Amino acid sequence: MTDFYAGEKEYFPKIKKINYEGPKSDNPLAFKYYDAEKKVGKKKMKDHLRFAVAYWHSFCADGTDPFGSATHIHPWISGAKTPMDAASNKMDAAFEFITKLGAEFYAFHDRDMAPEGASPAESEKNLFTMTAKAKKLQKATGVKLLWGTANLFSNPRFMNGAATNPEFSVVALAATQVKAAIDATIELGGQGYTFWGGREGYMSLINTDLKKEKDNLARFLIMARDYARKQGFKGAFYIEPKPMEPSKHQYDFDTETVIGFLRYYGLDNDFRLNIEANHAELAGHDFVHELETAAAAGLFGSVDANRGDTMNGWDTDQFPISYYETALAMNAILKAGGFTTGGLNFDAKIRRNSVDLSDLFIAHIGGMDAFAIGLEIANRIASDGVIPNFIKKRYASFSAGDGAKFAKGELDLEQLAKIGTDAGYGNTGITSGKQEYLENVLNGYLLGL
Ligand code: XLS
Ligand code: CA
Ligand code: CA
Fold it and tell me: Could you tell me if 185 and 193 are in contact, meaning their C-beta atoms sit under 8 angstroms apart?
């Protein structure tokens, strides 16, 4: 990878390459814990963490909220004469930012990268023009594409859904975008392709044929998978669960729901989960719950790294800062064997009142440091062995004797009940779960003791 990308225009001239300076550094534009080349266990930090920058939040979002207009006046957009000029400038800024930050990957929606044209053909042309530029910049910088996706929620035509729209013509228009976004993803060597169904749900059941919508969603995903495979796409497809917002109810409610959906429609060989921390919270789960649930089904794929605000229950998409949460998340990810096609994509945005250009760097640095610490702690959990060994021991009765027979499906209910009858009540089951002890052990690791 080049040191940093000095494109035709430099958008962050005062900021140089972000380096690792260690925990004692007071430089806000340096990593304190993320040391890309440092080995943790068998792999380098950068290969464990596979950081990606989200194009939409970092280079498109402008601080607008329901009560106020833009506060982030992006220099790459404000000076541009046409939407395509703005897209081109934005891409220069994006690659400069990603390279200076030292993230290896990025992720995009079709409309983040190229504006919608007057017709599907023009939109596709715009996307391919920008894809060609992205390909050149990827080559020049070494930055890679983690995943691509299509924005099937912003345009008013998708107000009643995309693949689940009650009007067939809208479903067909959604297909124009997905087909082109898959083509762009393949062209850019993307390692994954994501579906987030923000409007694939309902506002009310009074006007909704739920079964038809779910069948149509599955049909659409099957078509997308078949098309991409036919074009030679070898990467992973991801479904990103979110229970609600913008719809009242979304069909990809949470990880467990998506697993059931994928298996029911026979999509579980190609699709995996892209889990977002903030969406987990909205579903009433911990981030780690969603990760462990996906891993247990063998369907863990990738992560949208961020955090919500537990007090207000919105999708605030803040940068992750909790070491406790990143430690548990990285523990789940390491237990699942680590990332293959996936990575940690910062689906996070700086606050509306964070108006300095450096704030975008500082936010990512904090998130990367938080996950680097999480990784170190997760590695400590594994190497120290106290927690994993406790769990192993807790279930040891299924590894030998009748317990092992049960686990292998060699007992019927009568045999199982006889074993229970023979054992009698005694003190069976009165065994401490040691939760507080294990929590204290984990806190010890967090303090580096
Ligand atoms: C929105 C989602 C979205 C997906 C990609 O809440 O997080 O940004 O990650 O479409
Ligand atoms: Ca997301
Ligand atoms: Ca979100």
Answer: yes
